[in-house]
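Hey team,

Filing this mostly as a record. A colleague (T.K.) asked me to run one chain through the structure pipeline before their review meeting, and I want the input and output archived in the tracker in case anyone asks later how it was produced. No errors, nothing strange. Just documentation.

Input sequence:
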Amino acid sequence: MTTISRAVSSLACLAFLLQAPATPAFAQDDAQASAADPGTQPAGVQPPAGVPVPVLQTNETDPWLYRGSDIPHDKAWHFGEMPNGLKYAVRKNGVPPGQVSIRVRVDAGSLNESDGERGYAHLLEHMLFRESKYIKSGQAIAAFQRLGATFGTDTNAVTSTTQTVFKLDLPNATAASLDETFKLMSGMVTAPTLSAADLKQDLPIVLAEMREHGGAAKRVQDALQETFYKGQRLAVRQPIGTAASLHAATDKSVQAFYHRWYRPDNVTVIVAGDADPAMLESYVRKWFGGWRAEGPLAPVPSFGDPVAPTGGNTGSARELAPVGETRVLVEPDLPPSIMIATLRPWRQVIDNIPYNQGLMTDQIAQAIINRRLETRARAGGSFLSAAVNEDKVSRSADVTFVSVTPLGEDWDKALHDVRAVIADAMTRPPSQAEIDREVAELDVAFQVPVEQERILPGAKLADDLVNALDIRETVAGPQDVLRIFRESKPLFAPEKVLEHTRKLFSGTVTRALFTTQKAGDATDAQLHQALVDPIKADASARLAATEKPVSFDTLPAIGAPQKPVSDLPTGLLDIEELTFANGVKVMLWPVTEEPGRVVVKVRFGGGTRSVEPADAAYLALGNYALVGSGEATLGMDDLDRISTGRKMGFDFSVDDAAFQLQAETRPQDLADQLYLFAAKLDLPRWDVNPFRRAKAAAKIQYDTYATSPQGILSRDLPYYQHGKDPRYATPTPAEIDKATPEGFKKMWSKALSEGPVEVQIYGDFDKAAAISALEKTFGALKPRTDALSTAKAPPIVPAKADTTPVVLHHHGDPDQAAAVISWPTGGGSLGIRESRQLEILTQLFTNRLLDAVREKLGVAYSPYVFSDWPVDLQAGGSITAVAQVDPKSVDVFFQTAEEIAQDLITNPPSADELDRVIEPLRQQVTRAASSTAFFMNQLEGASRDPVRFSSVRTVLYDYTQTTPEKMQALAAKYLGQGNSWRLEVLPEGEAMAPAPGAGAMAAAKAAAK
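Output structure:
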């Protein structure tokens, strides 16, 4: 819920951004931005002058969501029903300030389709955006951009097997923009055009989306559904549909599906935002109240139940569900993987407190098994990873999944070992200590939302309610969830957990899919036999009763505590900078308006640019193994145990010019979180098992990149963008094989010992307590050598212009390809203003590219353009346009992108075109600025480069103050002919993509204009 202090804090940050920059040298001729006084800003959306706030008409005593349930009502939500049958829910939420999140949920997805309608639910999602009562054909994107919403982020839709949801997060909402938004969305849902011309426009786009999502991963997903849900509709109902059914679609057949399911009595409107709930309700009633349905609602087709195998129970004594269908699928480029599913019929439940207590017990049972499986994997077992997860799938089955990634070729041993751990869990109860450990973890998981309730975004609250409706359950406030959980703790006894464990593996049938890289590794019958063979319970991974306790009090000190030598204001909001004698600098920003949340970031060393190219493989392995290698006296298991019942993290990343550790924690855990990070730098440990596991994971993953054009781009694009610098390459299996534990330790020991060190702490914490903890941790570190002063590594250089494309190949479907065209730009903090202006230019480029190759030509589903400007480097930035297309359209894409670039150079954008880009950018920045994270992200590296402090002051100005002529000048500076380089990813065995015919080129040229 929004509080006054939160609103004032957010408005103060916004006012700071809205201040006019002090005549920056790079923009002395720009118009000055207006200053804002936070005291004059309205608290949420207000009705027009003279118009009273309407009276809420919802049912507060018998809300429709909770009928038949004893779950406490979340009083922040207000539930209503209209005479036409449409249900709605509204609530006030001011995070981020000024935003209103709208969800229109249609209770129909791909499982509602007949055989001849496969793909219609998803096709309709597209066609509703195409043309409707208040939106002309192809104008939806522009209409929502004018309201400040970004297409694909703020404006979106999703079709699943059971629902279709239209989503809009309206920034900077006003009474007028809300009224217009509800008008547009109501027209889309209640009165779409659905003409033959619209179908002709959208069908190629949907087919392009189908092509983009094809390949090995799609084949595995299809095989999984066909195997696991055999005999049910879900086995043959992917939301994307089939090419045959989509090609056969007509405007009349699509309209028939629409009229059957798009009705007010099958739709729910959910709204959460910064406005009075009665005001939000009034728009729902105004724009959806006149919608009328014809005839009764069609009966929902039966989704079917899991089918038991014939021939009686063929399961083992301990695995209670009989083993049915098993299948082996050969996919040479995918890692070996075994998926097992134990299925039970799905039935709508009474969502009451006892039901949820059962779910909590299920969670504990699963967590205990998963911890044991992870313990086995860390010890160097026969499997890289394994996990158990229970899920209610598409209102079709209640399923317990077991996933196994074998190590090496002995898949049978891996499956045996996983089954043995599960068999042990089903044989005898867990210890109370094991239960208490998982209960402590769940307690934190339920407590954090209580502490952070005031900062939960409205969009998440709206999505949570959508998900609850989809699974036919309720929602509860965080306080009630925590209370119910804590009152239920006496129920979490060993025998009860054992009972729930056994239920997880009982049911109608158990089925399995084994994806292997080589034909002949296994047969369907061998997989079946491996599931029914008798198994001996393995208790070796249980928590030992005599396990030595781990405590922060017993860990070695980092060094002698040292007080900071300076504590100075930065001049930016209330952020202060501490400096210690060892050179460590700390930025502190206590913010009580973000209760229960503290973020810690530690940047150290020189990042990628400080690493020798010969050590490039260790960069990738560090992402897998550096944290797991432990610290001080703590191995990975110890780190897990010492953080039990605490909110602590250990995320690690590699940037161009620094390495970074990051965690979100709580005020009471901050001191220990700081110790963990400081000890990682000064007291590293080098366990070999995490390194070996990292090597195995990296080798397994490598082949997966070749399964699709997008995979190849993920693997190789950074390498080519950085002039074939091996430090940006994904190491090959051969390179991984050459890596040694000694080499890993040598490279990362050096990196961990180097400076500079910059710490950021922001959120809800006590400053004096934080400084005291810093004195014992980062203040106590040994002085460090600057990574760049001793680095022998070569500089990072950008790719050179070349009109001859780099040609790479993938092993996926023959109708898949990708095309990239990239223009080098620049880098460095002195160019931040220009980098932000380039973001405007790339958004203009994206809009034109989307209109040309998706909306007009239909050759790509999601083309996009992005700008990368490395603030820490003086070069290496780029503007890059990317699309996944069919092979024959690669050159069409190149031609279209070049023509758009040249047109941006020749002709400045229109004022309307520029406004449709700037307004969404303005809203993105102002929404982000309501969070401390936004400012601290901008300040990463500022302790070494103070320019970043001043650049924060102009961020909104830089993203929103420009002219068509300045965009034209930027385009001329960077997008000129001969400045770019190209890359194309083609199916294996195909040479460079052929040039298109004259007709296709002419069409591309026309579309680009």
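Quick notes for T.K.: The longest strand covers residues 383-393. The chain is about 40% helix and 15% strand.
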